[in-house]
Amino acid sequence: GAGVSQSPSNKVTEKGKDVELRCDPISGHTALYWYRQSLGQGLEFLIYFQGNSAPDKSGLPSDRFSAERTGGSVSTLTIQRTQQEDSAVYLCASSRDSTGTYEQYFGPGTRLTVT
Amino acid sequence: AQKVTQAQTEISVVEKEDVTLDCVYETRDTTYYLFWYKQPPSGELVFLIRRNSFDEQNEISGRYSWNFQKSTSSFNFTITASQVVDSAVYFCALSEATGNQFYFGTGTSLTVIP
């Protein structure tokens, strides 16, 4: 079946502009996670959604970052007034639920470059 | 404190050698789950294995094997007779039954030299 998809695959933007990154999880997966991976680094947790519950935003690095998930499916991560330090690969993952019982399946990521 | 520690940042082996990737975790939960993921040069993370805290049986899948030891809080991953296609970054991760996050280690970059 279809895996997690993300768009765009690459995004180059100028400092100060807003960007939107999209994630389509695996159908039926109720949990959705966003991570950031800087060059050669591990995964930095940003935010997660479980069904219609309030999201866990504890990993968002600043108030310039926000995310929403519409209809319990597609999610959009928005970065306002981008800074050069926002350059990274943004990964989305989905899981059957958020109990941690089930593995996460990752999308291919969006490579964001802020010039 | 790191919940998942992968002390080996980079490892290089010659093809056909065996290699073990170490993972040490920290949790107070009695119910938790451990995972290994592979991130090849193409970039997409691939799930390899999940293990719950009540199952300490070692697992073997082809050339891959995993050694889970609660006594040392370790979940090590061994690749037997390594191949060039095994070259990737490998991540160990932990999730706790009382929480919702997955905690990833910083990854071990494995290079298999032909």
String of helices and strands of chain A? EEEEEEEEEE
Beta-strand percentage of chain A? over 45%
Low-confidence stretches of chain A: none
How large a portion of the residues of chain B is in β-strands, by DSSP E? Answer: over 45%
Structural class of chain B: mainly beta
Mean pLDDT of chain B equals 92
Shape, per Cα inertia axes of chain B:
globular
The portion of residues assigned to helices of chain A is under 10%
What low-confidence regions of chain B span 5 or more consecutive residues with pLDDT below 50? none
Distance N terminus to C terminus of chain A?
Answer: 37 Å
Quaternary state reads heterodimer
Largest sheet of chain B: 6 strands, mixed
Description:
The complex is a heterodimer of chains A (115) and B (114). The mean pLDDT of chain A is 91. Chain A is built from no helices and ten strands. Chain A is an all-beta fold. Chain B has 114 residues and is mainly β. The model of chain B has no long low-confidence stretch (mean pLDDT 92). Chains A and B meet through strand 4, strand 5, strand 8 and strand 9 of A and strand 5, strand 6, strand 10 and strand 11 of B.
Question: What is the element layout, followed by pairings?
Answer:
The complex is a heterodimer of chains A (115) and B (114).
Chain A: E1 5-7, E2 10-13, E3 19-24, E4 31-37, E5 44-50, E6 65-69, E7 75-79, E8 88-95, E9 105-106, E10 110-114
Parallel strand pairs in A: 2-10
Antiparallel strand pairs in A: 1-3, 3-7, 4-5, 4-8, 6-7, 8-9, 8-10
Chain B: E1 4-5, E2 10-14, E3 19-21, E4 24-25, E5 32-39, E6 46-52, E7 59-61, E8 64-69, E9 74-79, E10 88-96, E11 102-104, E12 108-113
Describe this structure in a few short sentences.
Chain A is mainly β. Helices cover 0% and strands 45% of the residues of chain A. At the A-B interface, strand 4, strand 5, strand 8 and strand 9 of A face strand 5, strand 6, strand 10 and strand 11 of B.
